[in-house]
Amino acid sequence: MSTRSAYARQEPAESSGTALTDGIHLVVDALKANEIKTIYGLVGIPITDLARTAQTSGIRYIGFRHEASAGNAAAAAGFLTQRPGVCLTTSGPGFLNGLPALANATTNCFPMIQLSGSSDRSVVDLQRGDYQDLDQLNAARPFVKAAYRIGQVSDIGVGVARAIRTAISGRPGGVYLDIPAAVLGQTLETSAALDSIWRLVDPAPRQLPATDAVERALDALSQAQRPLIVLGKGAAYARAEDEIRRFVEATGIPFLPMSMAKGLLPDSHPQSVAAARSLAISRADVVLLVGARLNWLLGHGESPQWSADAKFIQVDIAPSEFDSNRPIMAPLTGDIGSVMSAMVGGLTAHTTVAPASWTTWSAELAARKARNDATMRSRLAEDPRPMRFYNALAAIRTVLQRNQDVYVVNEGANALDLARNVIDMELPRHRLDTGTWGVMGIGMGYSVAAAVETGRPVVAIEGDSAFGFSGMEIETICRYRLPVTVVILNNGGVYRGDEVTTAENTAAPGGSDPAPTVLNSQARHELIAEAFGGKGYHVTTPSELTAALTEAIASNGPAIIDCELDPAAGQESGHLASRNVTSALTASSPPVSAAG
Ligand code: ADP
């Protein structure tokens, strides 16, 4: 079935008088017909006119300085809107620059489409050497949910429809859509073009769980002594907070949010055990995973983090996720909203769900929460000079508590690990961070998307190293006058900035170079914002930080706050120190060549 769309432009062919359209217009019309409202991209051959046409046709085009950030913005837009975020890239290197973001979107289960121009197939396939030639379709394939190429102008409608359907139905993910330059330039009679576009009906259909699967899950929970619900970013994406809240509150089961699920139910909710995470994980005997995978972020569900005999129930739209790490005693396939409302519905028949023994468990967790909260409060009250992470974050926390609708973007090592614990979230989908891969470089792209898609203020809490990966996008943020405040926790290094060069002979080549983890602790990042017309602040105390952040959020415009920290603050690899490989050889061991 096809739905006719209005055409922005029809070109009568001079000889015949037949109205024609072309591939560029058809792509734009197909996207518009499917409610794609924004394209994030970077122009160049052969897609510059596509961006122009999109803009004049009413699709918002946001142009970046590097494709990785455009891709990250599209991925975040997908997470925030449940529609695929679209990233537009040029052929060859432009495509490759965008690809890591598409791979990251796939890993995070965010719906995204990378739409890329590409070179002449006949030249690429014979490796005759075209401008920016690359077999993009096959290069993309290992990193995405699906990769499609449109081979002729009349297939643009089906190609766009297929990309959208694949990106958002089932487990969301990244789709690569290749459109060779020749196809963008091909013409087609307008009447045929109209018929080649269609609008998707119910692009992400609800998936209801089987009744016996719900029964099994409720039975399993009713046998628990120490149940726990783990909420993941899949639940945040699914917008299932109402159903989840009903289940959580009806059963009284404590819940633990994964980092991007913070705020799905407020962190201040009495049943949140975020502040007693280790105890909750190590003692839980039946665990209900809701849109969270038992991957490395959850220690694969294994001992010693978890109790060796913990049992798992899992809600996921992708059944292949079950049993990926631990046996799933009650798998629940379906979309989270449908599953959790079926679970609420099933509760009336299960009077045993919410047994009295859970009160003891809840009390045990509450006591640990109170103890950990007290430790956190005293840490936040410390006031060392120069500032360190905790007292800087205490200032940010105070300001954000007064501005709960601010979107928080967070990346870095210590800046990520500590901010995640210190900054509470009260609203769903208001925290975006490094996600499943723990990848650096998402900061500015995610910030742009959060501002563009929601219109609300954004605060990016960045390590100085992490900021560097996408820092040039400050220009993008300033160009579009977006309400983004970037707080750079600047300790002058990757992890920290006080490592000294260990080369014994400082006269040797590189002997006087900075150590590998060292950046510039004197850097004045706020000047970058000023260079592009944004506001810059340099702060050295928590009260200066509080004042600057309050003013920057209220200004509703772009700003950088360079927050000078002690270069000795921070720990190597943040909370992931145990994953590091430390050289077995001491610094004084002879080099391999000499020893051999
Ligand atoms: P976290 O990192 O927060 O633990 P993950 O990204 O590991 O979360 O897990 C998200 C899970 O949610 C994925 O397994 C994905 O298949 C699932 N998911 C995503 N959207 C939905 C949905 N609408 N309904 C059910 N499951 C979903």
TrEMBL record:
Cofactor(s) needed by this chain: thiamine diphosphate
EC number: 4.1.1.8
Domain Thiamine pyrophosphate enzyme TPP-binding as annotated: residue spans: 419-563
Family annotation (SUPFAM superfamilies): DHS-like NAD/FAD-binding domain, Thiamin diphosphate-binding fold (THDP-binding)
EC top class named in words: lyase
GO molecular function, one term: oxalyl-CoA decarboxylase activity
Thiamine pyrophosphate enzyme central domain boundaries: 214-342
Coiled-coil regions listed in the entry: none
Keyword vocabulary terms for this entry: Lyase, Magnesium, Metal-binding, Thiamine pyrophosphate
GO BP, one annotated term: fatty acid alpha-oxidation
Cited InterPro entries: DHS-like_NAD/FAD-binding_dom, HACL1-like, Oxalyl-CoA_decarboxylase, THDP-binding, Thiamin_PyroP_enz_cen_dom, Thiamin_PyroP_enz_TPP-bd_dom, TPP_enzyme_TPP-bd
Domain Thiamine pyrophosphate enzyme N-terminal TPP-binding per the UniProt entry, residue ranges: 23-137
One protein family per Pfam: TPP_enzyme_N
CDD domains according to UniProt: TPP_BZL_OCoD_HPCL, TPP_PYR_POX_like
Cross-referenced PANTHER family: 2-HYDROXYACYL-COA LYASE, 2-HYDROXYACYL-COA LYASE 1
Family the entry assigns: Belongs to the TPP enzyme family.
Protein name: Oxalyl-CoA decarboxylase
Organism: Mycobacterium spongiae
